[in-house]
Amino acid sequence: MASARALGGAIPTSRTTYIGKGRGRGRGAAAGDGSPRQPGSQAGSAAGTDQRQLLGVAGILELLETAPPSTNAESLAEQVFKEAEASINTGDEVTKFAHSLYKWTLQAPDRAKNAAIACNAVGQLERDNIKFRSPFLQTLKKDYDSRNEWKDVEETRWVSLACLVCQFYKEFRVAGNYVAALESPALTCIEMLLSTSSIKCHVYGVEQLCDLGPILYPKNSEKIDEMMDDLRRRLLASDTLSSSRVLFLEALEFYAGGWEMDETAVDYYTNKKAGI
Question: Could you tell me the mean pLDDT of each successive run of 10 residues in the chain, 276 residues long?
């Protein structure tokens, strides 16, 4: 994975959408204005906060936790940016916010989408020459590089990290382009999730494959074709669990349809996966 310094060069802008339904799917997204404020400047203006009580770090995390799937991502990003801009005043607070958001994200895979939206919004937030993205990406890189040492004993944390890496790739832009440094890690995470025998890994591996497939495929068609061939073999294998078969079939149908699926098929798989 690229260095934190290289990853930190990403300047967030807008992003695309995913047409499916499910955990974290179907939500559009866009970045907030990440323009940094001068270090040491006063946090927020009276007009900007309307003299209301600021949420702070804990409140921002609660905002991300409670945002329903139907929440407009641009609106969510704007709320996060405004709260962070107004309530975070020092470099130490920036670092605390970055570490708190990262720790919160790795507690549940479903948090990756909103976490990526939040990071996109506040990536340029800077106090005392410390930008939010630096401590966040440094911690992310450390865990990604050491994943093989702990992923088998901390499955939820590993799946959450994999989803976060994937959503980072989807959210971040440089001059309107996806960040090349994140492409290989995102594809690796999907491969690793799908290659295990864990239903939980399969659920989120298929979700990320369907979400990122249209983005990754043009430059990684050979590798993804091989991945789909492997899913076909496992779909027919006698030792494959029925729950995994449903997930693999969804991925194969989405892939065969040119990374598109009609509403009838989406509803079918949504219902089939309800009990997984």
Answer: 44 35 38 38 42 76 91 92 95 97 97 94 94 95 97 98 96 80 96 96 98 96 97 95 96 96 93 87
- Of 176, 178, 182, nearest to 162 (Cα)? 182
List the one residue out of 227, 197, 222, 196 whose CA is nearest residue 209: 227
What does the block give as tokens for 229?
Answer: 């061939």
Label residue 100 left, alpha or beta by phi (over 0 means left) and psi (-120 to 50 means alpha): alpha
Q: How far is CA 230 from CA 206, 213, 256, in A?
A: 13, 16, 14
Question: Under a CB-based contact definition with an 8 Å cutoff, are residues 43 and 125 in contact?
Answer: no
Give 230's Cβ-side CA count (13 Å radius): 11
* Torsion sign over Cα 193, 199, 204, 207: positive
> For residue 206, what are its two tokens?
């298929």
**pTM, two decimal places:** 0.79
- Rounded to whole angstroms, the Cα distance separating 218 from 178 reads 13
Half-sphere exposure of 128 (CA within 13 A, CB side): 8
CA-based R_g, the chain, Å: 19
